[in-house]
Design goal:
Layout: H1 3-8, E1 15-18, E2 21-25, E3 32-40, E4 46-53, E5 62-68, E6 79-80, E7 88-96, E8 102-109, E9 118-126, E10 134-135, E11 140-141, E12 148-149, E13 155-156, E14 162-168, E15 183-189, E16 197-200, E17 207-214, E18 220-226, E19 231-237, E20 248-253, E21 260-263, E22 269-273, E23 318-323, E24 332-337, E25 356-363, E26 369-375, E27 379-385
Antiparallel strand pairs: 1-2, 2-27, 3-4, 4-5, 5-6, 7-8, 8-9, 9-10, 9-11, 12-14, 13-14, 14-15, 15-16, 17-18, 18-19, 19-20, 21-22, 22-23, 23-24, 25-26, 26-27
Length: 398
């Protein structure tokens, strides 16, 4: 599909494309749409949040969301939930606190300077008269160092503490951020998000987008995107995130693009990702923000003491990788959608970008599986798979 065809299809209507599979392109007023996050509300409605604007890193990038009521056949209209004209607002995450309040977390950075990013937290309200309408007035920045970034959702520890997965874009004096010194951490709050303490994860250079999955009361496995574009990495904690094992590679390739992990109701662990890496493609680009065209004569960060980040590896196919041993191995992989995955440009207008990236997944209590991901950076695609999607009859997923 070219950008014009995609735009014409962005109605939000869920349409059947195969037995047990429905798809929608979410409505948006923006040319670029990226980084979907799905959340299920108490009444069974879904919220999908993402960021949109003209180009990632530009100050017109804001957070949007829309609602799919339970039983509905179409998503509601897009709602703009952030309004900072001076920052690129990215990577939304929606969290329902134990007290029932709904929170939006997202990043805010000047231009492509992720090392100057701050995390904003704002309460989200749903209109009592029109449940398709969301608002997020006010908000505040978290008391965390600049350069902290989010992607995955909060988990609530057994003692009630909130664990917010973080990756740190470390500042290098007089040098531009390029991902070469990014590390992983967990921000922990014991007072409902009022204050936060940062717990770094040792030996995690290049490990970002930490995605935790509960294995037991205080035991979690967590999985990483890798700047080095080699493999998804795994770490584990047995003390509720106070300490973590050194990250180690799994058998799933990674292309330095986002992943998401969850435990399914049958006990299996699922990761949705683009299971390709740098050894499988020679395609490269200089950096994530090499098209912003903004004056910055600083050199890229020296990788000494860090890693050499790899950008430009194709972001396709989208696949579900399944594990029965708590994420130690992923022998079963089901393709959701294939394509060239070309991502040498972030431009959403000229049709060069063909990525299907930044996927998210959410399982309903009845086994329905919802997937959302970036489609050519022009739209957010929602895929709904009926219960039984992983049966022999349901294997034709793409």
């Amino acid at each position: 599909m070219n950008p014009e065809d995609i735009a014409r299809g962005m109605s939000g209507a869920l349409l059947p494309v195969a037995s047990g599979r429905d798809e929608a392109l979410l409505p948006s007023p923006m040319i670029q749409n990226h980084a979907a996050f799905l959340h299920r509300l108490e009444d069974g409605a879904l919220v999908c949040a993402w960021f949109g604007g003209t180009l990632e890193g530009k100050s017109d990038i804001s957070i949007f969301a829309c609602v799919l009521p339970k039983g509905a056949s179409a998503w509601g209209p897009p709602q703009r939930l952030s309004h900072d004209p001076a920052h690129s607002e990215q990577n939304p995450m929606v969290f329902a606190a134990p007290d029932g309040r709904l929170w939006l977390f997202h990043t805010a950075q000047p231009s492509g300077n992720q090392d100057e990013c701050r995390i904003r937290m704002v309460e989200v309200f749903r209109d009592a008269d029109d449940p398709l309408v969301l608002t997020a007035p006010g908000g505040r920045y978290l008391d965390l160092p600049r350069g902290c970034f989010v992607r995955a959702g909060i988990v609530v520890r057994a003692d009630g503490a909130w664990l917010l997965p973080i990756f740190r874009c470390i500042q290098r004096p007089n040098q531009k951020w390029n991902g070469s010194h990014d590390t992983a951490a967990v921000a922990i709050s014991g007072d409902g998000g009022e204050t936060w303490r940062l717990q770094d994860i040792d030996a995690s250079v290049g490990c970002v987008h930490l995605g935790p999955v509960r294995l037991g009361e205080d035991r979690y496995a967590a999985f990483f995107r890798r700047r080095q574009a080699d493999f998804i990495y795994r770490t584990e904690t047995t003390d509720g995130g106070r300490t973590w094992s050194a990250p180690a590679p799994t058998d799933v390739p990674n292309n330095n693009s986002s992943i998401a992990a969850t435990r399914l109701r049958d006990g299996r662990l699922a990761i949705i990702c683009n299971p390709v890496n740098a050894s499988q493609s020679s395609e490269r680009r200089a950096s994530l923000y090499d098209e912003l065209g903004e004056a910055d004569d600083r050199p890229d960060a020296d990788p000494t003491g860090g890693c050499v980040p790899v950008w430009g590896v194709p972001r396709a196919p989208v696949a579900l990788c399944l594990s029965t041993d708590d994420g130690l191995t992923f022998p079963e992989r089901l393709v959701i959608e294939t394509g060239p995955g070309t991502c040498l440009s972030n431009d959403s207008i000229d049709g060069r970008n063909k990525e299907m990236s930044y996927p998210w997944l959410l399982e309903e209590p009845d086994g329905t599986l919802h997937l959302a991901y970036t489609y050519h950076r022009r739209a957010i695609k929602h895929v709904r798979l009926a219960p039984g999607w992983d049966s022999a009859a349901g294997r034709r997923l793409s």
